[in-house]
Design goal:
Strand content: 5-15%
Bound molecules: flavin mononucleotide
Order of helices and strands: EHEHEHEHEEEEEHEHEHHHHEHEHH
Oligomer: single chain
Helix content: 25-40%
Shape: globular
Radius of gyration: 22 Å
Number of helices: 13
Largest sheet: 8 strands, parallel, barrel
Distance between the termini: 31 Å
Length: 439
């Protein structure tokens, strides 16, 4: 079968540019209005996207007075989207550091039933330091601890999803036999961090378990992804680093005995699209003019676990010495590596760096015509940098609409992207194997 491109729509605020929420092309709906999310999911489905994705943070940002986010809780939103769509995959972020595994296993199994097999879980360990204040207040876990707990967590939730065999439910009304007793088994997990008896109190979902998505890119994060992820979201600022990341992750997956094509690499892509290059650049300028560097400075501080950047002048060139060593950062470590890499290469001023980060927080941002965007996508896809993209439209819904109307048909004409869904589950859209079933 020819290799097919995958497209995921990352819904975030009123678009991924920091100033999108104020732009006239952004949705007039409130960010707490479910119609905003259902409209976007339906549009992405009409564009034959594989999936939509919702990120999640577990504490309000310090910049809340001047920067809104997506506010509704992702699992709840996915339940609504499942009812509003037919085929598109639905991926929600949920934290291994701040959610009981039994709760998570139960919610995602329920969502897989509700959506009839379209659910994915973005497995995060939560980098945001202030989240711990909302969950017991014992202080944030270190980067290493978070990933160590996540390993045990995965064993527990997989055990719970496997605690029902595929054919456990008989629902035989004549004989009065609802389930096969030998198809349901306890888990009795006793580990360092979790004690969970099981079995789960929800039968096995249509996909067996949700599709596993992962978005950590540090060395530890990559190893974790190679062991468990079926799709990997990653922030890359240029094609060369994207190719390195792609090659390394596929090699790591092969080392763990997995088929490399069963681990899809989907870098973020935030395209500003215009009918001419000049029009696209005008749109970029409009967005940048609406940005507030002090919002950016607070966000930068959050990525570095609260590091103080207030003394840095906006208009002097930065040096890597202005930043803490990424190895000491317990928050978003891989993103800090991306940021310092850019500073080392290009020596931007703080204002320039914040301008770049405002585009899509360190993901790849580009501006051009539909043909130029389609060329870029094809190039990365064919040249070992991506299996598809995590599309991060700078303004929603405007830039999604243009992408679907102008770029998707080009990709379809080139034979890269589906014109119709071949199946109805996220696993089939992504071309993933079914997880081993228990008997
Ligand atoms: C596209 C994308 C989406 C992400 N979404 C979330 C999120 O919703 N919540 C979160 O806590 N971290 C999120 N992250 C961060 C990572 O999952 C990871 O926790 C963080 O990068 C720190 O781990 P690392 O140092 O291994 O990269 C996201 C990262 C990427 C690239």
């Amino acid at each position: 079968m020819t290799r097919q491109l995958h497209l995921n729509l990352f819904i975030h605020g009123r678009g991924h540019h920091e100033a999108a929420w104020r732009h006239p092309a952004a949705s007039p709906l409130a960010l707490t209005d479910i119609r905003y999310y259902t409209d976007l999911a339906r549009q992405a489905e009409a564009g034959r996207f594989d999936s939509v994705f919702l990120a999640d943070t577990l504490a309000v940002g310090e910049d809340v007075a001047r920067a809104p986010r997506s506010w509704l809780e992702p699992i709840t939103v996915l339940a609504a989207l499942a009812g509003a769509t037919e085929s598109i995959g639905l991926i929600a972020t949920c934290s291994t550091s701040y959610t009981e595994p039994f709760n998570l296993a139960r919610q995602f199994a329920s969502l897989d039933h509700i959506s009839r097999g379209r659910v994915g879980w973005n497995i995060v360990t939560t980098w945001l330091a202030t989240a711990s204040g909302n969950y017991g207040g014992q202080g944030p876990l270190s980067h290493a601890d978070r990933y160590e707990r996540a390993e045990e967590y995965l064993r527990v939730v997989c055990g719970l999803w496997d605690s029902w065999s595929d054919d456990a439910v008989l629902d035989d009304r004549d004989s009065g036999q609802y389930a096969r007793p030998d198809g349901i088994r306890a888990l009795n997990h006793v580990g360092e961090h979790y004690h969970v008896s099981g079995p789960l109190n929800v039968p096995r979902g249509p996909q067996g378990r949700p599709v596993f998505v992962q978005a950590g890119s540090s060395v530890t994060g990559r190893r974790f992804a190679a062991r468990h992820a079926e799709a990997v979201f990653t922030a890359q600022m240029e094609k060369a680093t994207a190719r390195d990341f792609y090659a390394e992750l596929k090699a790591l997956a092969a080392e763990t005995g997995r088929a490399p094509e069963q681990v899809l690499v989907l870098p973020g892509l935030s395209p500003v699209i215009g009918s001419t290059e000049a029009e696209a650049q005008r749109f970029v300028r409009e967005l940048n003019d609406l940005s507030d560097p002090e919002v950016g400075r607070k966000r930068l501080s959050g990525r570095f676990g609260g590091h103080d950047f207030s003394h840095l002048s906006l208009d002097e060139p930065l040096s890597p010495n202005d930043f803490p060593d990424p190895a000491t950062v317990q928050a978003a470590r891989s993103r800090t590596e991306v940021i310092i890499g850019l500073v080392r290469r290009e020596r931007p001023t703080l204002r320039q760096l914040l301008g770049y980060m405002a585009g899509a927080r360190g993901h790849f941002v580009t501006a051009g015509t539909p043909e130029q965007i389609a060329d870029l996508i094809e190039d990365w896809f064919r040249d070992g940098a991506a299996d598809g993209f995590n599309l991060m439209p700078p303004v929603l819904p405007a830039m999604l609409e243009v992408f679907i109307a102008e770029v998707v048909p080009l990709l379809q004409k080139r034979g890269l992207f589906r014109a119709a869904y071949a199946g109805r589950t996220l696993r089939s859209h992504y071309g993933l194997e079914w997880p081993r079933t228990v008997s």
